[in-house]
Specification:
- The protein contains three helices and three strands.
- By secondary structure, the chain is α/β, with parallel strands linked by helices.
- A three-stranded parallel sheet has the order 2-1-3, with helices on one face.
- Helix 1 links the parallel strand 1 and strand 2.
Length: 99
């Protein structure tokens, strides 16, 4: 099994839905940069749930995605692992959000 980079940047989103594609576009741009060898950049597409196999056994993971919230367009949020669960609990999931 090939070794994996210790750090991962994952972009999630759908470029056909305009601002929802921010994660995909960000990793597109990042993949053209001279990054350290211990950093991998991946496009996870529209299903963040499928990113689980990408993030396991990494020292650090950064996920870039759009969220629907009451903030100005273009706002940037930094959330840690402890922040994600309470944020997700405030939103109801629909079948469109499940893979």
């Amino acid at each position: 099994m090939p070794s994996r980079a210790e750090k991962l940047v994952v972009g999630i989103g759908n470029i056909l839905r305009h601002d929802d594609g921010v994660g995909v576009r960000a990793v597109e741009l990042m993949s053209k940069l001279p990054l350290p060898e211990d950093v991998e950049v991946r496009d996870a597409g529209v299903s963040g749930q499928d990113a689980g196999c990408l993030i396991e056994n990494r020292d650090k993971v950064v996920v870039i995605d759009a969220i629907d919230c009451d903030a100005e367009p273009g706002s940037i949020f930094r959330m840690g692992a402890r922040d994600v669960r309470p944020f997700a609990a405030r939103r109801r999931l629909s079948l469109h959000q499940m893979h």
